């Protein structure tokens, strides 16, 4: 405990990201980044906006990005909130919708940032167990909660919950905000965005970090009823008036508009995922069914932890979670076909 710290800082358990500054040149399959670069149009727009006008503050309401996203999803601008990465949008949502409420509810295996925010903002929470296949059984979701958060597809498992099931939760809990974190939705799942005009308690959060190759730029957004978006605006304007900078604004607009490039990248990743799964199954891996740009794998004989270390020694970084229920699994991001061939050629001899 440092004497200068505020009370409560000592007891926080901060989020731990995957290794981001490795000591050598790895095949990096540990943080679900997109292996393809951003669209050339995005890079051109950022370069073009790097000019004298950077002396000015950006539009505090990010109107141009909001309008572009609204047009793309057939919504109104007042259904859109934009923030500095979806982690920030999630943090604002916890503050806006879950403080001083009954327990917030999420699966026991999910994005590890959720309990971190709960502790930071003093939000009480309850988790519910996933099935043996890491699926969500909606009848296991506690009722009378202060809200529900579901990463869909889930992280780190990659499993997808059908939107008909989410609709059951929306109907059962009309007085609580159901937040669907769709960070990985573009890799094969079906988005809940189509339900926004039907349910006032639905907030869908997405990001440009994964499917649009812009993890380094930090843009995330939320889609929902105008009243929910207003709640987020109140939090944002009490915290940081300008979370979206001028360069990110220019890049985000082009990233949403360049749909051809986006479709090409996501198709390549989905195809590479299919190939990787087949190869791993030949090597006696059990692969959890994934709709994300990563897969969650376990081997019949070899412990995940030693596999993680052996891969690292051989120049491949994957993610290992030393946590109950999943400590014999590895999460492997889907890279280029070339990356995944190296991965399979390396992991094969280790397990054989
Ligand atoms: C990556 C990720 C995010 C955060 O993405 P940002 O880069 O902050 O936009 C949010 N939720 C889940 C489940 C993620 O995996």
Descriptors:
352 residues; alpha/beta; Aspartate Aminotransferase, domain 1; Aspartate Aminotransferase, domain 2; seven-stranded mixed β-sheet; four-stranded antiparallel β-sheet; 10 helices; 13 strands; globular; binds pyridoxal-5'-phosphate
Task: Characterise this structure.
The chain is α/β, with parallel strands linked by helices. It folds into two domains: 27-37 and 260-351, Aspartate Aminotransferase, domain 1, CATH 3.90.1150; 40-257, Aspartate Aminotransferase, domain 2. 35% of the residues lie in helices and 15% in strands. It has helices at residues 40-49, 63-73, 86-97, 113-120, 163-172, 226-236, 246-257, 259-282, 304-313, 337-351, and strands at residues 27-28, 80-83, 104-107, 125-128, 147-151, 177-181, 202-207, 220-224, 285-287, 294-299, 316-317, 319-320, 330-333. α3 packs across α4, α3 (86-97) crosses α6 (226-236) and α8 (259-282) runs parallel beside α10. The longest helix is centred in the last third of the chain and has 24 residues, at 259-282. The termini are far apart. The model has no long low-confidence stretch (mean pLDDT 96). The chain binds pyridoxal-5'-phosphate. Residues 85-87, 111, 151, 155, 181, 183, 207, 209, 215, 220 line the site of pyridoxal-5'-phosphate (PLP). Pyridoxal-5'-phosphate (PLP) is lined by residues 85-87, 111, 151, 155, 181, 183, 207, 209, 215, 220.
